[in-house]
Amino acid sequence: MIPFSDEELKPVVEQSLEKVKPMLALDGGGMKLLAIKNGKVFVQLQGACVGCSASNQTLKYGIERQLRMDIHPEIEVINIAEGMENMIDEIANS
Q1: pTM, 2 dp
Q2: Which residues contact 5 (CB under 8 A, 6 or more apart)?
Q3: Concatenated DSSP letters for 1-32?
Q4: Complete domains list, the chain, with CATH
Q5: I want to staple 24 with a disulfide (CB 3.0 to 4.6 A). Which of 29, 60, 86, 87 is the partner?
């Protein structure tokens, strides 16, 4: 269990994500923070990351790894495809 509220997580998550964005930009990609719910971080990969076969690796070994090092070892990052933003609450509660 992550010992922080979603509100407490937001600024530190944003700060941690800034470390990853240059790596994504090198490959023509990007990312947007959509929400933090129940300790799960919801992002939307953008640019060249959309549909890229390596995007799952980027998510787990780039973004999630950075957040786990900076914030908490159990933090989870979930990519939400464009148009699926209405599914965040459902996923957060599962």
Answers
A1: 0.90
A2: none
A3: --SS-HHHHHHHHHHHHHHHHHHHHHTTEEEE
A4: 6-92 (3.30.300.130)
A5: 29
